[in-house]
Amino acid sequence: MDAQIILRPVEAEDEKDINILRRQPSVMHYTLGLPSERRASNQSFIKGLTENDHVIVAEYDGRVVGIGLEVLGGRLHYYGTAAMAVHDEFQNQGIGSRLLDYLIDIADNYLGLLRLELGVVEGNMRAVQLYKSRGFETEGTLRKAHFARGAFYNVLVMGRLNTALLPKD
Predict the structure, then answer these.
(1) In terms of C-beta distances under 8 Å and separation of at least 24 residues, what long-range contacts does 158-161 make, across chains too?
(2) Does CATH place domain 2-118 in 2.40.30.10?
(3) Domain regions of the chain by residue span
(4) Distance (Å, rounded) from C-alpha 110 to C-alpha 154?
(5) Between the chain's N and C termini, which has fewer beta carbons within 10 Å?
């Protein structure tokens, strides 16, 4: 399946698939997705993107099955944030890895970002291991910062530095 996945920038027509993706049980548990989220929210999100927002989707057989997001303060800014979600049916198939690698490539090789940061729900071990494998380190814990399924969860703040951009001592 990996070869059949297409990574590309988000398009306005993706809002329906993104709405379905964001309402998947595991996505809602580990992100801020809600079962009552409407397509209009995703339409507004896509319409509001600027040249400093880099939203990448993973497409399989004509439908969006994953989304990765990097939001920046400007092309010359050194800092970015990342967030990702993969449709429940397509998890554990390498899509998250490909999305993250693509975002890191954009950050490192096109935008010259020194730092990428993300938040991940503490119990989401697959995501934590993926981020660690790409050089992210846990920098702190936001206690009880995420609410899902009637409970509060800690959020790990993880960061990654592009060491090639650091000054040499």
Answers:
(1) 158/117, 158/118, 158/119, 158/120, 158/128, 158/131, 158/132, 159/115, 159/116, 159/117, 159/118, 160/104, 160/115, 160/116, 160/117, 160/131, 160/134, 160/135, 160/136, 161/114, 161/115, 161/135
(2) no
(3) 2-118
(4) 33
(5) C
Average pLDDT over residues 145-157: 95
**Continuous segment of H or E residues that includes residue 17:** helix 15-22
Say if pTM beats, i.e. exceeds, 0.90. no
DSSP state of 55: E
Instruction: Taking residues 24-35, report their average pLDDT.
Output: 88
| Residue from 148, 125, 150, 147 nearest 138 by CA | 125
Whole-angstrom Cα distance, residue 110 to residue 52? 12
Hey, is 115 helix, strand or coil?
Answer: strand
Are 117 and 80 a contacting pair, CB within 8 Å? Answer: yes
Say which residue the tokens 């970015």 belong to: 80
